[in-house]
Amino acid sequence: MSEQTATRARALGTRWLGVGLAAVISVVTLGLGLTGRLNLYISPESVWFACAAAVVTLAGAIWSCTLPLGEEGDHGHDHGHGHAAAAVEGTEGREVPASSRRTFGAVAAVTGGVIASGVVVAGLILPPASLSVELAMSRAGEQSALFVGADTVALGVADTSTFGVGDWASVFSAATNTAAYDGAAVTLRGFVTPGESGDGVNLTRLVITHCVIDAQTAVLPVDVKADEYATGQWVEITGTVRADADGKLHIEPTDVVAIDEPGDPYEY
Questions:
Q1: Structural domain boundaries in the chain
Q2: pLDDT digits (tens, 9 = 90+) for 229-247
Q3: Superkingdom of the source (predicted)?
Q4: Contacts of 159 (CB under 8 A, 6+ apart)
Q5: How many CB atoms lie within 10 A of CB 120?
Q6: Taking Cα atoms as reference points, which of 187, 195, 173 lies closest to residue 247?
Q7: pTM recorded for the entire structure
Q8: Sign of CA dihedral 200, 228, 205, 253
């Protein structure tokens, strides 16, 4: 391979790892945002910001492609004077050959480029999907109260008419006056996971604040036989909140209907 060809290949690689990957990620983000599937990764309040950032990044990437190939790597330095110093002094007084440092840097750059390219290509090929039921089950119990108004819940004066699974999960775990919630009517959607006692199930939902990285699992015990619905099956439950003799809350259903996973499977 001639030196000119090698220089061109390095310039192409540098451009791909920079504006190339940025442009592809921007296109993927815009595509997900326009089709409403970006909600599978971030909260709806953040979609506009992500799409705006993608537009700015894409515009910058297109503009940068007007530069001559390889110019982005020219910092105005004279790199021809390095032949007189073939080695540099190491941190412990040893001399490390400059060629070895260049080789190490090249290997690190190629490795990082392959990994980054693989992630981006996977984003193009693989269809968007919600977080798995297994992940939700593994995170169950990590968070005790999802509801922001924990004090209100504890006092038993909250308006529950708009509560989702996440809000009720905080009531179940944090309320001290559980009798105040006894008899509350609910209609909730979520997926089925095994209950703690083995004679019931949990209605489960993932709650995210900003993106799927901070997803928390909210679970509600429901009086449904464990073998009636498979783990992961989405259901809509209509019923009543009941308080046990020991003060623990659970849902007593009057109707349970199997449904498909909704387009937006998270609560926020």
A1: 3-125, 134-258
A2: 999 999 999 999 999 888 8
A3: Bacteria
A4: none
A5: 18
A6: 173
A7: 0.66
A8: negative
Tell me which amino acid residue 104 is. Answer: F
**Size of the chain in residues:** 268
Among 229, 214, 216, 212, smallest CA distance to 264 is for: 212
Protein fold of 134-258: OB fold (Dihydrolipoamide Acetyltransferase, E2P) (2.40.50)
Between CA 102 and CA 82 the distance in angstroms is: 12
